[in-house]
Design a protein that fits this description.
Largest sheet: 8 strands, antiparallel, barrel
Strand order of the largest sheet: 3-4-11-8-9-6-5-12
CATH architecture of the largest domain: Beta Barrel
CATH topology of the largest domain: Cyclophilin
CATH class of the largest domain: Mainly Beta
Low-confidence stretches: 180-231
Number of helices: 5
């Protein structure tokens, strides 16, 4: 959990102490970001540096677990622990139109190339996410033998229902990280702790009572968790 606190000029030590008192079991990130009158004009750089210091960007970039979203269906996939997998992860989130080919695969040519380590897998399995050449992403939805060479990007963990979701024609596919802090849930947690609403207000649930601490001596406070369901 990380704290970003804004105040005009007064110290945030009291706010930080209150937070630790109210949520004593949280796994706090190193360092707190204090936004005040003297530095608020440089807000984007401040946040970027804080994210770097806390290692939040590294956590996102090194994640091997992704979602593959096809229409209303979402499949989990694991990226290969390789330069190719890392390079593909750097493109996410990525939404592409994948073209149908041979009744067993969908493909899309990227605008840039990825690292390659091509080999002949012999058998292609449904759910394999491969790179053909250096810029053609291929998602297979059938299992069959092949003499072609590919570089592995990753694979869908459970391809059941994949063929049906992809259909028989071209299809839009979105690749994204499984864990993200981009979308905050609009409802408050039933647990003790902190939840931020989309309207920007902050509430703390403590001993069964909900406290709204927006305003007063706290002008704004955000808490960012390593887990997508724990704000």
């Amino acid at each position: 959990m990380g704290l970003i606190v804004s105040s005009a000029s007064s110290s945030i030590s009291g706010v930080v102490a209150d937070c630790h008192h109210l949520v004593p079991d949280a796994d706090y990130l190193p360092g707190n970001l204090w936004i005040n009158n003297s530095n608020r004009s440089n807000l984007s750089t401040l946040i970027a540096n804080w994210v770097e210091t806390c290692g939040l960007n590294q956590q996102a970039n090194t994640s091997k677990q992704i979602n593959v979203v096809i229409g209303s269906k979402t499949f989990t996939a694991t990226l290969a622990d390789s330069e190719t997998g890392e390079a593909f992860a750097a493109l996410l989130p990525l939404t592409i139109t994948m073209n149908e080919l041979n009744g067993n695969e969908k493909y899309h040519y990227l605008s840039s190339s990825l690292p390659t380590a091509a080999y002949q897998p012999g058998t292609i399995h449904a759910g394999d996410l491969m790179l053909y050449g250096n810029n053609c992403v291929v998602l297979f939805y059938e299992t069959f033998n092949s003499s072609y060479s590919y570089t592995r990007i990753g694979a869908i963990d459970n391809p059941s229902g994949l063929a049906s979701a992809l259909g028989s024609g071209n299809v839009s596919v979105r690749f994204e990280f499984s864990t993200t802090t981009e979308n905050l849930t609009p409802t408050l947690s039933s647990r003790e702790g902190v939840k931020v609403l989309r309207d920007g207000q902050l509430y703390i649930r403590y001993n069964g009572t909900m406290y709204n601490v927006q305003g007063g001596y706290v002008s704004a406070i955000w808490l960012v968790s390593r887990k997508s369901d724990d704000y």
